[in-house]
Design a protein that fits this description.
The chain is α/β, with parallel strands linked by helices and 358 residues long. The chain has 12 helices and 15 strands. The protein has 2 domains: 243 residues, TIM Barrel (Alpha-Beta Barrel), CATH 3.20.20; 103 residues, Sulfite Reductase Hemoprotein, domain 1. A hairpin with a 2-residue loop joins strand 14 and strand 15.
Length: 358
């Protein structure tokens, strides 16, 4: 089923449009400068929507300046108090994340929907395994079916107001429950879905769980926006989201790194080199492939298959560009040369894309 379209600022999601990447700040929203700095940092890495917590009226008021200066649409995350969602939308938020089941009843839901309508904003109905509708919980237990039915019921509460610019999220900390709930809802409704595994964990555990859940769903054609929820910097969430989307064949943005797991044949400090190169070219937006390989067994083949790469030797590396061996370089010169060549390839890729559009 192709989902209907929803709009978040100038972004169009659902309806077969590219999957949108979002994250959430971990700053105190009342600290405008810190929140804006984090939003801009995430946007530079490719975040297309950024959500901020709105726990009180001071945070809602801070959104006026934050939303005005943000390079991407800002969505207010609100629980329990409909007035905070209304205030946030009046102050420039391009959307609000609410749970209709805890926002205060039909009149409160209507007030939020009316504010969103006036602002031309989106509403995201968010259902987590830990916040199920009481009726559905009693009927189905704490199960994916209860999540899907809760989401359907709560979406219905918003639709009854006449507001329809909606997206929905069904999240659990369990990969299996998240996948099952998203599948069930997809069968029942064409509302665009925001995907994620809630409380996924730190970088390693969180990316692993998110990659499995999102990978399965995306390859089934389910999902219109994604967040990789991690205990850590939101910038890591953005990078992880694009890595997952790239692996799923859904979005090709930025540098794809190919690097070997290392073994006793490796005679350079491959991890240090990889980290330095990542730091140097993480700002590149064009979809290019860079191989950083540790030895001459698989290294030349993998490096030759990438846009550019190196195959390590003893304290040196052989540089390949577009499949051609260019030269050997000392280890100390590898990172700078890879950056220079990567920016050349990115520029060529960008110019070629511009010609194609013409």
């Amino acid at each position: 089923m192709t989902t209907r379209v929803a709009r978040v600022g100038s972004l169009v999601l659902g309806g077969g449009n590219p999957v949108v990447v979002q994250t959430m700040t971990n700053t105190d929203t009342r600290d405008v400068s810190a929140t804006l700095a984090q939003i801009k940092s995430c946007a530079a890495l490719g975040a297309e929507i950024v959500r901020v917590a709105v726990p009180d009226r001071a945070a809602a008021l801070a959104l006026k300046e934050i939303a005005a200066e943000s390079p991407v649409p800002v969505v207010a995350d609100v629980h329990f108090q409909a007035s905070l969602a209304v205030e946030s939308l009046k102050n420039g938020a391009k959307g609000a994340r609410i749970n209709p089941g805890n926002i205060g009843g039909p009149e409160k839901i209507r007030s939020v929907a009316e504010a969103a309508g006036k602002a031309g904003a989106v509403l995201r109905v968010g259902v987590n395994m830990g916040s199920l509708d009481k009726e559905m919980l009693a009927k189905y237990g704490r199960t994916p079916r209860a999540m899907a039915e809760s989401a359907l019921k709560e979406v219905g509460l918003v639709l009854e107001t006449g507001f329809s610019n909606l997206k929905v999220s069904l999240k659990a900390s369990s990969v299996q429950d998240t996948v099952a709930a998203a599948r069930l809802f997809h069968e029942l409704s064409d509302i665009p879905q925001h995907l994620g595994v809630t409380e996924a964990g730190d970088l390693i555990a969180g990316v692993a769980k998110s990659a499995v859940a999102l990978g399965v769903l995306l390859n089934e054609g389910i999902g219109d926006t994604v967040r990789v929820s991690l205990t850590g910097p939101p910038e890591d969430e953005v990078l992880a989201a694009y890595a997952i989307l790239r692996a799923a064949g859904k979005r090709m943005r930025g540098v794809e790194f190919i690097s070997c797991p290392t073994c006793g044949r490796c005679e350079i400090d491959l991890l240090a080199l990889l980290k330095e190169v990542e730091g140097r070219i993480s700002d590149i937006k064009e979809p290019i492939k860079v191989a950083v390989m540790g030895c001459r067994v698989n290294g030349p083949g993998e490096a030759a298959d990438a846009d550019l790469g190196i195959a390590g030797g003893k304290n040196k590396g052989t540089l390949f560009v577009k499949g051609k061996k260019i030269k050997d370089l000392p280890y100390s010169a590898l990172a700078a040369e890879l950056e220079r060549r990567a920016r050349e390839v990115a520029r060529e890729t960008r110019l070629e894309a511009e010609k194609t559009r013409e």
